[in-house]
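Reopening: structure tokens for the alpha-D-glucopyranose complex, inputs below.
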Amino acid sequence: MDSIGSLGLQQREGAPSCPQEGLPCPSNSSELVQECLQQFKVTGAQLRQIQTSLLDSMEQALKGQASPAPAVRMLPTYVGSTPHGTEQGDFVVLELGATGASLRVLWVTLMGIEGHKMEPRSQEFVIPQEVMLGPGQQLFDFAARCLSEFLDALPVGNQGLQLGFSFSFPCHQTGLDKSTLISWTKGFRCSGVEGQDVVQLLRDAIQRQGTYSIDVVAVVNDTVGTMMGCEPGLGPCEVGLVVDTGTNACYMEEARHVAVLDEDRGRVCISVEWGSFSDDGALGPVLTIFDHTLDHESLNRGAQRFEKMIGGLYLGELVRLVLAHLARCGVLFGGYTSPALLRQGGILLEHVAEMEDPSAGAARVHAILQDLGLNPRASDAEFVQHVCAAVCTRAAQLCAAALAAVLSRLQHSREQQTLQIAVATGGRVFERHPRFLSILQETVMLLAPECDVSFIPSVDGGGQGVAMVTAVAARLAAHRCLLEETLAPFRLTREQLAAVQAQMREAMAKGLQGEASSLRMLPTYVRDTPDGSERGDFLALDLGGTNFRVLLVRVATGGVQITSQIYSIPECVAQGSGQQLFDHIVDCIVDFQEKQGLSGQSLPLGFTFSFPCTQLGLDQGILLNWTKGFNASDCEGQDVVCLLREAIGRRQAVELNVVAIVNDTVGTMMSCGYEDPHCEVGLIVGTGTNACYMEELRNVASVDGDSGHMCINMEWGAFGDDGSLSMLSTRFDASVDQASINPGKQRFEKMISGMYLGEIVRHTLLHLTSLGVLFRGQQTQRLQTRDIFKTKFLSEIESDSLALRQVRAILEDLGLSLTSDDALMVLEVCQAVSQRAAQLCGAGVAAVVEKIRENRGLEELTVSVGVDGTLYKLHPHFSSLVAATVRELAPRCVVTFLQSEDGSGKGAALVTAVACRLAQMTCV
Ligand code: BG6
Ligand code: GLC
Ligand code: GLC
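Re-run output (same inputs, fresh job):
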């Protein structure tokens, strides 16, 4: 084509021809224009079909349908609530991707008082084309430079600035400050960014720039900024609609409908990413030849087909293609084109908006066309206006169909027949194009008549909203710091655990030697584990754990058979008088005997008594002090077997033959030892915690004899009562200790066992609430109630399969209303407390097995540990954490943990059986 004259007009080639395939070229101009524009007409039925089809895609995506992939993505944004209006502070906002080739930086001050506003400062920077299409690093470096330049002009320091990043492209968000770009849209195509966390890329660039210390606190889509910045009217604004370079919407969805989230309460903001909607069935009939050409010539061919009919980047382009076609057909501009008309991007949204404006008048249209290098004739202005109107009307109608789909979705998810809702609108198409909103409104009314929609223009192009999200994110980040600080003392290093192990070893040695030590290392007079030859029927009592039990244990050739019954010990009895307690025990035995038809028989009885006792023989145990929840008077310093016999005496009707008194650790070891001869350690992690093990008799100063073994009840719950654990003790341990019935006692037990972990968590939660980190800083009476937070809650909360839903259910049962962030933090508190407990317990076991190995002078020891206790058995991770710690701290011991299935009553019966066998042998 030849250029003519200074206008740069290009002459048409010969007679009118139709470059756009399939379009005839009638000679009548008006007809041709009409025919061309007819293609842009969308019927009500087509709009309804788009609405239905988009709604289907949205619902499939929410359900997590993988195949076929739904036409829209429905991306969760980590924004869980609309603003409270109380957010405050100064924030830097960086906007990238909403408005074509420009980047905006804002300084936003939130006043913290609803309705009070301060105008933000802002600056726009044009992104050079080569940056939009170059390496990703170059784009982010450019952004960091713009930030610096903007901040240089402000009276702000260079430290501690908090930034909200509005990044308007489809992203998979995994946190408020973590977002992976799925694919570029609109005019961007920088290399090395897709699949990367854009927040990290920005942080890296800011660091490379080096001038300002800026914390990138939150990343949001422009639709979210638009929604969040909306001044709340009568109700909150729960939809954000953007028609700028591209188009998209976000809305507040019920979290339980979003399959990818593990949340069943509350709402979450979903970015629909409707620009990618391209259902062939629905869109096919409305796509024109110009849409196909536009797509073909775009950077992202085949993608974002819906956006390409609505977004501002494309409206000018569609008009250009139509005008070029009509010019080539000889209908417009005397058949002449111009370089601007033939160049991609030659006509911009601004041109279209202005030309379409009915008030513009023919002269203005003329002037614009001339600016585009065209030489319009008198009739051209009107035709051009028709073209602009047709393209824009279609865009507004399609956008309305999509918005109607979102409104239908809201109606479905909220199960409401009618819906009153505010939609925040943002983007240059709304700002510059006067008719767009009115067509949109009209069409929405037709497509969703049951919805009463008010449209509210966004504040500062969404900058305010981004600042709101940033304020929330900054508050959450500050809370996280406080949480980390609070939990730090619970997190023990390997060195700290090794020190606990070493101290335990030292205390064991001292205790065995009879020197001052917090470990009493009590001889039990159990010299061997069972050999399998034991036989007979025995009664057993089991006192000191969660349940008090009476058992009938039949040891026969075929194995051990147990019948048992649980009786309650009311707190008033456990903490009443000794006589009352032992009378109650005997009452329970009598009841059991009657029910089992054993009345009148005097079976040998083994008594599992899970408290520290000095033993001088198997059937003698002087209670040193009560532990756990017991505190019956006049028992400490007394022989428990005597107390039981006296109670039997008071209840003249029964005769009982008490043969042995056994600690639960010993019962457990014996019970497991019946199955596995390697079982030489007994461990309890239940209401209390303790361990016993087989020691060389020669090491036990208080018992005569140099050969053979004796089981030692370590009473490790008291470890640290001499102050040696104070380095590890947190303020919460101190509170739990102070509030207990035995302050200063059982310090190791109070960090590990079931009676106390719930309390440690409760005290920690109280502290975090007082810092404002949890429950919005609201203290409740319930949480201040002692023992309200049971240790079994830790097990339930930490069980992976139930996760955060469980936390919510438990805490709400306690009358605490919590957000999903609260739920996560409570889970972390539970994890920190139970992890420390398991690790300390592991350090104790490591000390014990290492002692056994060294006693025997072995390079490697293979040993089994019999374990019982509700915490160990019910907690989902406790046992594996104990085992891992033992592997770490006692690498030369191969330790197998055996869970006792029958409780320590069976072990007590076995100890009794052995004693009876030995007694018979001596009689013979
Ligand atoms: C049981 C024993 O199996 O474990 C009790 O029979 C022991 O004697 C108990 O005290 C420890 O667990 P908990 O959780 O009941 O204290
Ligand atoms: C594009 C982006 C989307 C954005 C929209 C409006 O569709 O993919 O994330 O919200 O443009 O800017
Ligand atoms: C307490 C008791 C101890 C018992 C342990 C486990 O620590 O003092 O004897 O073994 O609890 O029940």
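The domain at 29-70+278-457 is CATH 3.40.367.20 (Hexokinase; domain 1). The pocket of 6-O-phosphono-beta-D-glucopyranose (ligand 1) is lined by residues 542, 544-546, 608, 610, 664, 684, 686-687, 754, 868-870, 903-905 (CB under 6 Å). Marking as resolved unless the reporter disagrees.
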